Amino acid sequence: MAVDPLIELRDVNKYYGELHVLRDVGLTVGKGEVVVVIGPSGSGKSTLCRAINRLETIQSGTILLDGRPLPAEGKALARLRAEVGMVFQSFNLFAHKTVLQNVSLGQVKVRGRGKAEADRRSRELLERVGVADQADKFPAQLSGGQQQRVAIARALAMDPKALLFDEPTSALDPEMINEVLEVMRQLAREGMTMVVVTHEMGFARSAANRVVFMADGRIVEDRSPQEFFSDPRSERARDFLSKILKH
């Protein structure tokens, strides 16, 4: 068990109709831990990630954040989503708002900050992710890597307790992947609690405290990167790694 659990999933089950996408999943993420979730397509990784901030509802089991069950809806749910930031595959930025407005919006609406304070905080965060000079542009004027870094700044602007990343680099051109991963590595070094669904094995090796390998809606392995990559225990993990590490 993690010393001080921030996110806990207990016997979580999720169905889409007949399809059982999460099967009795149990996972604990401690404060300051970086947990990377990997596995073949359709293994339930993204669903697991989205269930943690209730973008997906579960049929049974319990999900706790900081010892409290996830709220069902309304204002409490908006607050939860501020506390557990999410960075998606497709950046989900508002096209008609500038980069600065995108990062400031949630601070004003959910956190109740004044516009000047929100903008100041946004500029600090844009600086931190390396796109301060893009503040007055619109998302369409930025590269994919820059847009994803803005999305990370936007999630950070809410002062979250944890960040969830759902394949944050899979829509990016290869040369942009590293600039996003570098921001994520920096966050990991600074002690941000992170759950990252990704195909980037280098990131899993270098930044994760634990690698969680999923297959068929279950967690098959949950180990340190060193152990997992040097000696996977399950046939499924060995098969997956042999395919992915050849590329």
TrEMBL record:
Report the subcellular localization. Cell membrane
Tell me what reaction this enzyme catalyses. a polar amino acid(out) + ATP + H2O = a polar amino acid(in) + ADP + phosphate + H(+)
Which EC number applies?
7.4.2.1
Q: Which GO terms describe its cellular component?
A: plasma membrane
Topology term for the membrane: Peripheral membrane protein
Known CDD domains for this protein? ABC_HisP_GlnQ
What's the domain of life for this entry?
Answer: Bacteria
Domain called ABC transporter: residue spans: 7-241
Similarity-based family: Belongs to the ABC transporter superfamily.
Kindly provide the name given to this protein in its UniProt entry.
Answer: ABC-type polar-amino-acid transporter
Organism name: Streptomyces actuosus
